[in-house]
Design goal:
This protein is 30% helix and 37% strand. The protein has 2 helices and 4 strands. The chain is globular, with a radius of gyration of 11 Å.
Amino acid sequence: MSTHVFNVEMTCEGCSSAVERVLNRLKGQGVDNVSISLPEQKVVVKSTLSGDELLDIIKKTGKKTTYVGVQ
């Protein structure tokens, strides 16, 4: 299980909720924990999925997302 860090452009609670919603759908299917910091525009995901897989999932929200790396 790795901890992946992403920078996601989120301007409001609705933005962070959308990201949280798509990731929480995968709880028990590779995603263990999701932590979102709206002020830092950072998303931290503890998961067995790869960074690329998670990046594709987060991008489905339409938010500009970059993969920072493994923490």
